[in-house]
Amino acid sequence: MSVRTQSPPPLRLRLTSGKRIFGFLPIFALSATLLSSWEAVAAGFYAGLYNGGPVALTYGMLLSISGTLALAASLAEMSSMTPIAGAQYHWSYNLAPPRIAPFMAWMQGWITVFAWQATLTSVTFLAATQIQGLLILNYDSYVAHRWHGTLLMWAIMALTLLVNIWGFKLLPAIELLGGISHVAFFFALLIPLVLLSRRSSNEFVWETFLSQGGWDNSGVSYSVGLLTVVYCFVGSSIPHPTNAVLPAHNTRLRRRRPSERGNS
After folding, report:
1. How many domains would you assign to the chain?
2. What contacts 41, CB < 8 A, 6 or more positions away?
């Protein structure tokens, strides 16, 4: 086993002091809404049903959970060694061989940027198509066009941009409201489905494979359907929101004194 004898030069970063306005509950709610687990599955459920069917959704969810847990364990190990508030480029620089460390950090940074862009595009696309669906459902005279969805996407992105620029101080309250809605609407959706939906057999859930998305190859169809369950775990590897959390000594958790610990 080769031993690393030379370390790369220290990564010089320009330190910026961001506004720390998030307490424990808002950042916890942000973590939950950032994943949007059940919302993501509900929004992309049709893709999994058409491509792979119950087999892709059921076994794909088990596969995605195991992979995400392995990813979280790896990130936790690196976070314990090098706590950072940036993206994974810092870890790539520290752990890569010295000769290619700058290039690996540069590549990792751009991959992260592309991931942000893809995630933002997909989220706004789903929100825009859902708004279009509500218009089609409630207005018989409305004729849907694809460019309507594109304009709705831009409108949603403009709204989020305005909130982040001029409504930054409202973000903790918005995230807390989003976290409460995330939990409340989950039960509002789950309970009617459990009580009123038609039951499926075990064979349908565990053994039925469907390929109705137009793909000739079953492997491709399964992989497309796997996106439905993988999508709900997007965002689990983002550490930078910790840069906006209040310092630990400013939290409202009261630390017990040694004398109180002995009496408990």
Report:
1. 1
2. 228, 229, 231, 232
